[in-house]
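Next comes this protein.

***
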Amino acid sequence: MPETHSPTSPTNESSDATPTSRTQKLITLSLWLVLGLVMVGVVVARLIPHHADMPVLYPAPRFALTDQNGKPFGAADLRRRPYICDFIFTTCGSACPMMSHKMAQLQKQTPAQLRLVSFTVNPEHDTPAVLKEYAGEYKADPARWHFLTGTRQQALDEIHGMKVPYQGAAGADPILHSQKFFLVDGAGNVRGLYDSEDAGDMKRLVDDAAWLTRQDIKADKQ
């Protein structure tokens, strides 16, 4: 006899496959939807400013020093200008060259309105002429990046006022000082401290500096 097939077999297979197929499609669609929401969340998180957690830490000290061109330069010259500052000395052979190299990178990565300030912790040696030569080594833009010196007492006042860990040279012991960068707003308040050796901190500094600069530009227009 010829081989016969039950007419219900295809129907049964089709009816069994259809719910399974739909379930798989729903699961796949749900997974893609969840993945899409996660990706959107990541993008939004990057776009939403995180700068609400940038409170005023403490006021930066007022200062009146001398720049690398031998001209007076003080806190008044930075009014309404946010700035990044650090503490260095030109005869340092380890941390300071690294910090100055990173400050040179910040000069390229931050808005032109932002100022950069390097205070020497060894003013007896770091005269304006010495600082000018040092500035040239790092291609410092004189309109933006200021290297400042003064008397020993003025240097100590700035060091202590900025709460910078510091130890002067004593015998064979070298000068020790903080390797942090400080972000100061246009009103003269310290808003952030950043470890110069931490890549994440340096990226955060670039982002925070750009945001702070935008805020000061807005304030100028009001």
User: Anything to note?
Assistant: The longest strand covers residues 189-195. Confidence is low (pLDDT under 50) at residues 1-16, 34-49. The beta strands are 58-59, 64-66, 72-74, 83-88, 115-120, 145-148, 166-167, 176-177, 180-184, 189-195.
